[in-house]
Amino acid sequence: MSYNDWEAVIGLEIHAQLLTASKIFSSDSAHFGGADNEHTHPVSLGMPGTLPVLNELAVEYSAKTGLALNCKIRKKSVFARKNYFYPDLPKGYQISQYDEPLCEAGFVDYFLDGEIRRVGITRAHMEEDAGKSVHQGGFTLINLNRAGVPLLEIVSEPDMKTPQEAAEYARTVRKILRYLNVCDGNLEEGSMRCDCNVSVRKKGEKKFGTKVELKNINSFRFVEKAIEYEIHRQIDCLETGEKIQQETRLYDPTKNRTVTMRLKEEAHDYRYFPDPDLLPLVVDDAWLAKLKSSLPELPLARAQRFQTEYQVPAYDSFVLTTEKAQADFFEEVAHLSKNPKAASNWIMTDLLRDLNDAKLEIEKSPVAAADLAQLILLIDSKEISGKMAKDVFAEMFKTSKGPQEIVKSKGMSQITDSSAIEKLVDEVLAANANSVNDYRAGKTKLFGFFVGQVMKASKGQANPESVNQILQAKLKG
Ligand code: ADP
Ligand code: MG
Fold this sequence. Notes:
- By secondary structure, the chain is of the alpha+beta class.
- About 40% of the residues lie in helices and about 20% in strands.
- The protein folds into three domains: about 5-290, no CATH class; about 295-410, no CATH class; about 420-475, Arc Repressor Mutant, subunit A, CATH 1.10.10.410.
- β13 (about 245-250) and β14 form a beta hairpin.
């Protein structure tokens, strides 16, 4: 028996905190941070006699996301009370959508290992967040700033088989949320949270195994590691004749393992019932149609367009469209330089590397899109060589200056005048007469040496193409 006899089944529940200014049922701030319990209000504190009022923008953001996830949007959806007692849940219930959620039956396509794969979306429902318990000095303190913050819970079908698929699916959902500007997708601050459901079964088996839910995962790398660990743990259990408990486990990234948090509740434990304080949510066709037409071009469509319109390789097209601002930057450089291939290469290799090293977002790039386009134009018109361009780029990144200014101030422009290059070539050949004889006797590998010598003599400024041509002609003898 080995791990290869088993396969994993994975489904994700992603909680996305919506970027509204106020909470889902009250007017207090929904922003992250603030002093403890600063963002509280009688409604989010669950004071007796208060009534919830639904935030229209939260509905709009949720429906927009549903549309982008290819879901059907219910004309009438219902808010229910999910009853449980927890110190950070002031009302004793959480308002959530249950059997009639706003969005249902969609799918997400994502790119992995050179191909597009699909995950079904069971549902995406609106709900309020709970507060936070802080354990400190032997006490538990409650901070209710987060209580009532609007969430959209996106529930996937158990369609994934590997940790890599799960992580890439989650990254893709994050990308979509950020393109829509409905969630900032910050896993560390908890504005996007991924709960991973994992089970294993023997290959060929139709029936699902018992699932375990993994919580507390705050990076995509940990999504992968936690699921990986859990798959192996479950297989080890089953191979030694143990049963899998249906439970919620916490992932501990420092020890890279999962530990039991609580045994899993069933839906009936929550005594769901429609919230009598809230009317059913009804959306009409005209509103939905308007919302649909307001959707931006989504990341997958944009990546595919980059492939056809600019002949960008698939992998690059997905990197370039990771963030909307990055894709915008690429398109601007591609248009202004009229050289999309060079635009993509410069962004993928040089710009993203330097931004990453400097921990900068592309919005804060010291190199403006128009300047990068200008640099490409200088290369294409042979005013500078590709090698010089690397130095100019480094200077642009350091100083935010335009490429022409740098080229001029450093006297860097390329030598394209062929008589000047001929002179350099003659000098190099005269100084290396023995090598010239060897070359003519058949040691053609020496060609690179001559190129190097001429480039060196020109301080890197000779146009390499002309150097090649002239050398070839002269070495023929
Ligand atoms: P629950 O009622 O326990 O919340 P759901 O049926 O609502 O369970 O599913 C929650 C999540 O778990 C979904 O993302 C779903 O795809 C996933 N899931 C369901 N069954 C399994 C299974 N056997 N193995 C792995 N994931 C599963
Ligand atoms: Mg569920």
